[in-house]
Specification:
Blueprint lengths: L10 H17 L13 E5 L2 E4 H19 L1 H6 L3 H27 L6 H10 L4 E2 L2 E2 L1 H11 L3 H22 L6 H11 L2 E10 L1 H6 L4 H10 L5 E2 L2 E10 H6 L5 H10 L9 E9 L5 H16 L4 H8 L3 H4 L4 E5 L6 H7 L11 E2 L4 E10 L6 H34 L5 H7 L4 E2 L15 H7 L2 H5 L7 E4 L2 E11 L2 E2 L2 H33 L8 E6 L8 H7 L10 E7 L2 E11 L6 H29 L3 E2 L5
Antiparallel strand pairs: 1-2, 1-19, 3-4, 5-16, 5-18, 6-15, 7-12, 7-14, 8-9, 8-11, 10-11, 13-14, 17-18
Helix pairs in contact: 1-7, 1-23, 2-4, 4-7, 8-23, 10-21, 12-17, 17-18
Amino acid sequence: MLEKIRDGSQGVIAKGILVLVILSFAFAGVSSYLGSTTDEPAAEVNGDMITKAELEQAYQSERSRMEQQLGEMFAALSADERYLESIKQSVLERLVADKLIDQAAKAMGLRVSDEQIINAVKTEPAFQTDGRFDNDRYQAILRQLGYQPQAFRDMMRVDMTRRQLTAALIGTEFVLPGEAKQLAELQGQTRDVRYLLVDSAPFFATAVVSDEQVKNYYDANQGQFISPEMVSLEYVELNATDFAKNSPVSDDEARAYYEEHKAQYVSNEKRLAAHILVMPGSDEVAAKTKAEDIVKQLDNGADFAALAKANSDDTLSAEQGGKLDWFEPGVMEPSFDAALFALNKGQYSAVVKTDFGFHVIKLLDVQAGATVPFDDVKAKIIAQLQDKKAVDQFYSLQSKLADTSYEVPDTLSETAKAVGVDIKTTALFSRDNVPAALNKPDLVKAAFSETVMLKGLNSEVIELEPNHVVVIRVKEHHDAGTMALAEVKDSIVERLKQEQANDAARAKAQELMAQVKAGATDLAFVSKVKLARDAQDVDAAIIGKAFQMPTPSTTAVVDIVGLANGYAVIALDKVNAAEGVSDELVNALKQRLNAQYSEADYRGLIDSLKANAKVLYPVAE
């Protein structure tokens, strides 16, 4: 919360690391500073308890943060209980780390005085108005956040004490300019290479796998053949779109709606405008004076079209005597629009300024607004009334759907009868291959929940889209387990054939490598000069291997590397030094390295403290 209070911190990177520390502290709230509790512990750190309530509060705060950051993606991820469990575990570890730092700071005798806290509050920009501390604003923000002043000061005291320790460690980290420059030069290095591809496909076609080999592989790799937990569903679906197709609307109903809402079907008045534009250029005063002189000439009886042809800077309309187009209200700039719609037919305006320059506007003609004929909007009205009837029917049936599925929770038959639709079913599916029509986070979560999957009860009403809901129940459930050999035999055969093909391709690559080292010159190499690490037109495995190979001396360095479907023989001919390493790149790398070093220092501190502490997790969360 007080991200800008950074007493004792050093540099941007240290501040970034400390933000994480402060946020993790804020998750825990201030309850631990307001007295003891009898809540069950989620963890104990050297006898100090982290309660389940503190963990839950921190977990919910982290969930809210991730929902804001990830949006709909988090909704999909949160359908997996294992993912949420991993988040809660990471939050607990963060709270343990905070507790270890607090204990270390206390053991070292670190303290924060009342004066330091007062100064931190007064210098916090969130509590300032026009650069000065505003006590009323301070009190209002505390009330909004739900803090009492004393509890807030206690939180700050612990937070600032903790930062004395972390800032002292992280703030001492630095990166030498030569270190960053060396990395920049290494990253900017390019290499001249040649390579031969050995495709495994021809060897795959001749590979032979016996039943015994398949059985041996299956027995030795049981963990590869675990089938996920699967369910098939029955469900009752209500979709307003389906009802709209069967909601007839008569011509009389449409006509009655048209007459009742006739004001909606009146077209806007349109006006045909002409103008003379004087663009300001570098002298706005002269341009305005010229436009005012044009108005005087019009007042004296001059012809508008002739003046437009002679004076308007809008050359296209000038050729037409200044004529523009038909405009509805609100189309043109406000000042132009206001002047045009204040004129009577045949009148011209005074000088009007817009972003384009100075205008003299004339109203050539008026097309009054007219009521759109019923036949022109009949289809649109019928569609609107069909949608309205469908939505009304949907909400009426949704209420029955919710009531009946709750009152008769062990079947969907009564629910389907109550709403007049058929029960639909799905094939077996896992969390990773949900049918597309039902693949919504809330539905997946419900399908694999204890209530639906294990107890066999109807779910609550689940919204798939606006005005589109379902109630589900499990039709069939299969626990996770090992698939039978017959189910996976074909895939094992394919895998073993590919292994044989890869072995043969590797042998061929090694043979070619030997020929290259022996000086063979008749091989069809692909050559790449100044190959960069981030090249997109060469296989990543070839690039990775090329930059691992040692610098050649008098002859090329040759090696092989495995690819997705075969091998490659690589000949490294030359290593080229980086070109144009800029100061900006070096500075960026310094910051990145500093961040990495600081992060490693912080993790090392936590690991060291934890290794010498007694941390217990008495309650499995």
